[in-house]
Design a protein that fits this description.
Layout lengths: L15 H22 L3 H6 L1 E8 L5 E2 L1 H12 L2 E16 L2 E14 L4 E16 L2 E18 L4 H8 L11 H5 L1 H8 L1
Parallel strand pairs: 1-6
Antiparallel strand pairs: 1-2, 3-4, 4-5, 5-6
Length: 187
């Protein structure tokens, strides 16, 4: 068996530093999902280095400021979204890292009658500067997309259950029920 120099996906003894880096990179990915789904564009922008690129293919490719300016227009088509990260693989070398993260993104139409579900992967490059990991280049690859009709809009089903409905905004229940989340959002 040949041993490779540098980062490897092969099993190996992990250092505490590597575990801390992995935790920080995973949190970065999860925070991205939260920021997009709650439309917290200030938080979203903070996840990228100033010289980063976000590449969503033909839909969008540009700087973090351009991405944050473009995203509200694209998200205005959807009543709600739910981005989830599945399997995540990271390779770390000093203050640089790469990641392949499986994602499923649910999109509910404004009228609540259609769902678009995108299955793909984020192919990311990261850098740790001043001890903080952020995106340097985020690329989206779609593996497949499915669309389906919704039998009953969430408002119809949810209102009968007495459970608060999520909001794609600062009005989401997480901000009313979780004071630390509210303080973070409000700055």
């Amino acid at each position: 068996m040949t041993v490779r120099e540098g980062p490897s996906l092969q099993p190996h003894a992990m250092t505490v530093g590597e575990l801390l880096d992995l935790a920080a990179l995973q949190r970065l990915a999860w925070t991205y999902c939260h920021a997009v789904d709650r439309r917290d564009y200030v938080l979203l922008r903070s996840l990228y280095h100033d010289d980063a690129i976000d590449d969503h293919g033909a839909m969008f490719c540009g700087t973090p400021d351009e991405y944050v300016a473009w995203l509200p227009t694209m998200m205005a088509r959807w009543q709600a979204t739910s981005h989830a990260i599945g399997n995540s693989l990271f390779l770390i070398e000093d203050d640089r890292a790469e990641g392949e993260l499986l994602t499923t993104a649910y999109h509910r139409s404004l009228e609540g009658t259609q769902e678009l579900i995108a299955h793909g992967r984020y192919l990311d490059r990261y850098e740790k500067r001043a001890g903080v990991w952020k995106f340097l280049r985020r690329s989206l690859v779609l593996d497949w997309v499915s669309e389906r009709s919704v039998a009953a809009p969430i408002e119809t089903v949810g209102s009968g259950l007495g459970v608060p409905l999520g909001q794609a905004s600062a009005e989401d229940p997480c901000y009313g029920r979780l004071p630390m989340f509210e303080r973070q959002r409000r700055g």
